[in-house]
Amino acid sequence: MSATLIAGIARTAAPQTALRRFLALDAVVTGANGLAYAAFSAPTGRLLGIDPATLFELGLFLTAYAAGVGWLASRRRPPVFGVKLVIEANCAWVVLSLVSLFFWDAPTAAGLAWIPAQALTVAAFALFQQLALRQVAAARAARASGPQ
Fold first, then answer.
1. Which of 46, 90, 98, 99 is the 20 to 30 Å CA partner of 110?
2. What is the 3-state secondary structure (H, E, C) of 60-119?
3. What is the largest CA-CA distance in the chain?
4. What pLDDT does residue 64 have?
């Protein structure tokens, strides 16, 4: 994916700003999802075919995770290690979501649509965050090797 495409999606050509925007979007979507899972675990669990207690705990976890991602997004220069952890956690979420379809849950038709759609969304977050992080690294390298 080109830097132009990432800049267009993030609506900025500044790599740090793009990274922060992708982190912020991840935090908002994950936080909203977590709050909905926690607040409406019983009806959402019935709709998706997921145990409400599991969904409630997952909602609390996602809400806390979103707060951490939001904190990273609020940093002028998010720490590389923290961003890499978010990317890896997002990748793990994608894998575990897909595995859950076959081994842990007995999803309804809505669950069979929602779980992969959610995994695809999280995979997109991970991809855009990784690409933006690479652009940040490239910009730093370019500044470091600047005119001599």
1. 90
2. HHHHHHHHHHHHHHHCCCCCHHHHHHHHHHHHHHHHHHHHHHHHCCCCCHHHHHHHHHHH
3. 64
4. 98
Secondary structure of residue 139 in the 3-state scheme: helix
pTM of the predicted protein model:
0.87
More confident residue, 127 or 145: 127
What CA–CA distance (Å, rounded) separates 110 from 3?
36
Please identify which residue in the block is written with the tokens 């890896």: 88
Q: State how far the Cα of 148 lies from the Cα of 124, in Å rounded to an integer.
A: 39
Placement of tokens 């936080």 in the chain: 31
Helix (H) or strand (E) holding 32: helix 15-39
CA distance 66 to 93: 13
